[in-house]
Records
---
Amino acid sequence: MTDRLYYRDSFLYDFDAEVQALPESARPALILDRTAFYPTSGGQVFDTGWISTDNVKLKVTEVADSEDGRVVHYLEAPLKDLRPGTRVHGQIDASRRRDHMQQHSGQHVLSAAFVRLFNMPTVSFHMGDDYCSIDLDIKDLDTPTLSKEQVEQAERLANEIILENRPVDVRFVTRDEAAKLGLRKVPVTERDELRIIDIRDWDLSACGGTHIAQTGQIGCILLRKTERVRQGWRVEFIAGQRAVATARRDFTTLTEAASLFSSHIYDVPQQVRKSLDEIRSQRKQREQSLEELAAAQAAAMLAATPESSGRKLVVRTFADRDMNYLKLLAQKLTRLAPNVVALLATTSPQPSLVFAQSAGQASDMGALMKDAMSKLGGRGGGSKDMAQGGVPNADGIEAALSNVAATLRAQ
Ligand SMILES: [Zn+2]
């Protein structure tokens, strides 16, 4: 078993140790007789830092528990000349450790707040690179939900406990003693001795994590997104410098948004709502205008097209219409008169074709489109009266329309 120095002192960032073993592993790995490096467990992620001898200093990239209770340090490169018995110096990345302490102690304070205020126990804790989260069990509650007001209340109470700067003590007790203490969280392990994190008159939890010494060192706690998950409600939070950094990023983002509207940051939602309303009404106006344009254009095209063999064959290639407009125009053309066949195309923005005929006409637009697509290397098809297709480039579109028109005239 490795002697875990962090159990007794979370602020120990430098230590000396002796190499115990160099375990077989895909990555270079090292086991020491004692360590201040925290291995991933209990929701808290591992420390990083450095291990050095007189000659070399190597980065510790990950730390993990082995199955037999030892701590394995993974290194960026193999330590040469290293064997069991070699003396090494370990150094923890202090800013990463401090951040983890703020998040983890923040979690204890917050979890206790949810229990005391709303009887919502924490069933899991996750610490990520960006944010942390706890899952609250709400299945035993009369109203199994978590409101915005409850979130704000828990946040306020947690921050009060932080401001009161309560001492946080680490104690080791037997299972029997622990049973009498009334722990918020009792671990599942079989171990006889339990490590208790005692936030004075606020929270008692069995936990192996690294914690601050006084709640004031958490700094502050900020609750973020909440979402319904299978086992209850997930509450995202951040503490300490992370909370400040996130608030800073939020402010920068909001300021950027506000400057786009030339408004105050608190007016951004109102400005966005106003803009969305404008976009919606303009979209409606545009659709209306396109309908009117298509109707007028269809009427003009039909007037300019002579009837031949009892049919009006309209052939037209546009340079700047989209597929939707072609379809709209085809609809208008084929509904304005009972004997219309329309062969329409556009060369940009997306080279596309639309073939359509008035209901009851004899040709097959779907078949003609399939045939045209196979010649142009595009994809498309449709029904007997309406078909559409898209092609990779505009070359040959006009010739293809002429071909189809010639086929129709010959029928
Ligand atoms: Zn904990």
---
Amino acid sequence: MQKLRTSLLLLVVATVGLAAQAPALEEEVLRHYQAVLRIDSTDPPGNESGVVAYVKEQFEKEGIATQTFQLEPNRPNLVARLNGSGGKKPLLIMAHTDTVNVDPKKWTFPPFSATRDGGYVYGRGTVDNKQDVAAGLMTMLRLKRDKVALDRDVIFLAEAGEEGTTRVGIMFMANQHFDAIDSEYCLAEGGGVTRVGGAVKYASVATTEKIPRAIELTARGPAGHGSIPLQNNALTHLSTAVAAAANWVPPIKLNETTAAYFKRLASISSPEEAERYRNVLSPDPNVSGPADAYFRKEAPIYASMLRTSISPTMVNAGYRVNVIPSEVKATLDVRTTPDEDPDKFLEAVRKVINDPSVEVAWAARDTRPNAAPAKLDSEVFRALENNITKHYSAVTLPTMLTGATDMAYLRAKGMQCYGIGPATDIEDGPKGFWAHSDQERILESEFQRYARFYYDVVRDVAGKR
Ligand SMILES: [Zn+2]
């Protein structure tokens, strides 16, 4: 009884303590968030200096030193560091300060107003990626204020140019100032928590990603008058080749991440869906085949996660209706799995096309370096899983992104990078409110939950044990 009374008392004290503290923190992190949302850093042109100036001021007010690194005017990257004991290598937390562009006519509330309405915060960058600027900044400030003892340095990087001009951002930092950000682990955008019908369904943590490449097909044949059809018309050959490549189903190639993804997804799905997620993992093509065919038709993102993918995207052929062109080209968007051998894959595409009049070659593209996936049995992945359970009561799905992120440059340097993100409603995408949509928004309560989650993860990974 005495014991119970003591614990009750402790509980009351703890609750009062939290209640007294939390609103002030919530107010503060929201203030930082709205402040950076109100700075227009749309890329192009980028102009991230306003956001960097704001963040720098907050750090310096509390005695956290910052450094800026800039390749081009008005496009600074900011680094701030909290020193740990040096017992372990640093943790890097990243946020990009630029956003995609806006068409103001499409916005109910002005895109840089950070308007709070109906439980949401509206503005360009609310989920891509100023939530990380605010959550990262707040985490650093709290660690410093609370004098949290750290086993490893925590480095905050606000990077420019993520939205298409990585040369001034992560490429510049990775290639020319890696010393400033060299870490064992990094946290960046790329994952997120999915809500369906208002309830949290699962959390994705991005541990690897596909590599963007391009194949160019060139068909050649005699030029001629359109009035006299030719069997070796270059465009006919090209069309057949494009169709063959697009209709080809490259073999399934699973890795640790994708195997765990489908296995865990099965554990939270309806029996019918769960069967497909499990079947697609089977080495027996008779078992995996029907599930794979279903995904290709009904859930193409899953089909893309299973293999190197090909999408024809551009054709460059002909210049007038009555001339058969002698040379025509098509481009295929190819996303290779991290373990794909590019030479062997190109050879396989050649075989599929099987036409000597069509040249098949890799083309130049803003690609990403190849890198090993981040581990699932690491300190950071475990901290993420624990905190996803604690804050979201959800299953963690390690995820291979089909698109490319800035993490690739750091993974290529040996960093273990994990992509995370706040909870968003799956219904919000079709309504036009996601990252890169006409409008962008987040539930204020989810922003706050994310900020708490973020702090706890960083503290668990870097705090003294
Ligand atoms: Zn982004």
---
Amino acid sequence: MSDTNRRNFLKASSTVALSAGLLGRLQSGAFAAGDDTIRVGLVGCGGRGSGAAKQALSTEGKVQLVAVGDAFVESVDSSLAQLQKAFESKPERVAVDADHKFVGLDAYRKVIDSDIDLVILATPPGFRPTHFEYAVEKGRHIFMEKPVAVDAPGVRQVLAAAQKAKEQQLKVGVGLQRRHQNCYLDIVPRIHDGAIGDITSLRVYWNSGGVWEPRRERSQVRSELEYQLWSWYYYNWLCGDHICEQHIHNLDIGLWLKQQNPVKARGMGGRQVRADKRYGEIFDHHAVEFFFGDGTVMYSTCSHMSNCYHDVSEHAVGTKGTVDLNNNSSPRDNRVTPFTGEAYVYRGENPDPYQVEHDVLFKAIREGQSHNEAESGAMSTMASVLGRMCTYSGKEITWDEALNHGARVTPENMAELAFDSAPPTVPNEDGVYPVPVPGLTRVLA
Ligand SMILES: NC(=O)c1ccc[n+]([C@@H]2O[C@H](COP(=O)([O-])OP(=O)(O)OC[C@H]3O[C@@H](n4cnc5c(N)ncnc54)[C@H](O)[C@@H]3O)[C@@H](O)[C@H]2O)c1
């Protein structure tokens, strides 16, 4: 089967409900004339991109990594070396030839234009809307990491592309892996079924010691934009701040429990511990109250501070009890406690949710099941963007204002960005970046 026919076959098997017989033959590998290999491309060959590629290549059936791209050659080389080592016993899975290793800020187009069925998008999230939109335009199935954007225009771009992906029946997974983790899959539906009655308040936390240190000195790079790219976490246009980049996981669980989006939020935050200029412009703590339409409040805190109380978890109180959740899957932390009666404690298996999310996505592609997490990923992204808009501005902001009028923090020309482009934030002559100031910073366009 030619590559085009093979892709059409995979597409067709996704867009029509397969008969049990055909499905059986496909699953048993007896689809004689067909080649059911899923060819994968990777954009963003860092820690998570390499991990996601490994998980993609570990799904059932024939899978090959055939194209990779990154801003920097170092990432391409180290990712491929890691993957080749991981698949030493199945070398055919890592099949990237020299012509399909792409470097630069346009690498995403070259990977997506390659003969692939699915693309993994794992760059810093500021690029995600542009990369996602292009992948949908080219008819690729997609696994994209969270968050799916860093600002409201990006969320709107993702929502528009998600709709097109749905129309084309493309499969889209989003790296909010708690939604594929057993303790959550077991307990959240119990809450939806009324185990704690109506939810009246929620608490969600990502309070931790922080992430990696800035990765390059100015003397090692060609431009200010390259400097920021290496240390993307510390720049809002690339990362969205840690409320968006990390705490999205816990906000996502809050929205999933409550089954609705908040209607407004207010909060406060700042930069107290990680205040040195080498840490760019982001805050090190945020505390936000999200209000739902029925008056329920979701209290959210996230911080990056060492030697402090640390907690990454989600909780809700209802009219009949409480629920506690934590991705550590421990029975101590995953329980439903009614005000009267026995607590229910999750004691089941804990398969790696990063693997499960890929297993589910690839199965959906092979079996033609619908699978599109882009919209819910965009909503959780929007909640974290709204939280940041509140902490940066010090204002109370509604969901609708934020979604429809939230200011752009990424450059307009993300699709055409080059190493010599001007980034949206630059330091003063002392190397100090402007930091948001509540009461002064404007976040609505
Ligand atoms: N789901 C999870 O639990 C989880 C865990 C870690 C990271 N992530 C997400 O994965 C994404 C990547 O994070 P990471 O930890 O792998 O970061 P990383 O810095 O290790 O990797 C990012 C890679 O993207 C490359 N890159 C930057 N801009 C690019 C561009 N325009 N085109 C191509 N490549 C580009 C960088 O050079 C780097 O190799 C982020 O969105 C992050 O939030 C998710």
---
Amino acid sequence: MERELYTARLARKDCISEQAQCYHFEFVLDQLERFPFTAGQFVSAVANDANGKQQTRAYSLASAAHGNRFDLCVNRVEEGFFSNHLADLPDLPIGATIQVHGPHGHFILQDPVTDSILVATGTGVAPMRGYTQWLFPADGPDRSNGKDIWLVYGTRYESDIYYQEEFEALARRKPNFHYLPTLSRAQESWTGLRGYVQDHVARIVEERAARLGLPLPQPAPDPSIPRNELRFDICAYICGLNEMVASTRERLSAFGWHRKQIVFERYD
Ligand SMILES: Cc1cc2nc3c(=O)[nH]c(=O)nc-3n(C[C@H](O)[C@H](O)[C@H](O)COP(=O)(O)OP(=O)(O)OC[C@H]3O[C@@H](n4cnc5c(N)ncnc54)[C@H](O)[C@@H]3O)c2cc1C
């Protein structure tokens, strides 16, 4: 079946890291009044390459649904077609367009919201920004139900901590939002966390279990409970390149975490 293609007009483009060549984009769908989606989903962007061949790539929505607009966060991939096509969209005059279909995907928060560890590297932060906008709207009721939400964000350098000020401001506003950026190649002057996301995720799980008096590894669920009725009080949402996603899943599985507690999206 042909999917409906929408024309998305570029309304804003900011380079948010020169070093990583990462861009924040804001698009408007002028033909729609509303573009409904669930935070964490993606759009498929479609364009013809230099040989006239149609190319399609997925890009996570980097915002929660708001009217007929959506945000993306994309970094240039060396020799890649689509990421460079987007990064080269002319920002002045505003008005360049792209074609998209969607929303698609199942990388969404469990309902009801549980304690959640959001784990991202690089542009994998895009759906996490969508989640946090939905959980903690600036102009509406809080949807976090007081659950603890950790965002563990890994990158190499301080210059590549995308949306840092936004997340820091949110952490100041919401005591149950814990923002943990960690650098794998930090300069000496960096006073924050160092190392890989997996290690910080493991520490959060261990400290939480100790604080709540829960056993680790976590006992397996009662086998008589059907899978769709299983309920957990904490979940992890992991997004980024496969290597990080795989090793974070492995660490959580070693704590006895059930597959249903670990939701992930791989970009490669
Ligand atoms: C569900 C989903 C959501 C995604 N969301 C985003 C997003 O929000 N932001 C974003 O920047 N990308 C995202 N991606 C990746 C995106 O779809 C493209 O793969 C990426 O932009 C590269 O496309 P390209 O045409 O430039 O490179 P291609 O010509 O397709 O690939 C060039 C090479 O780079 C490798 N590669 C692919 N992606 C990456 C990457 N991110 N970093 C390093 N190497 C890579 C490929 O394996 C390939 O070998 C997402 C992917 C999926 C599956």
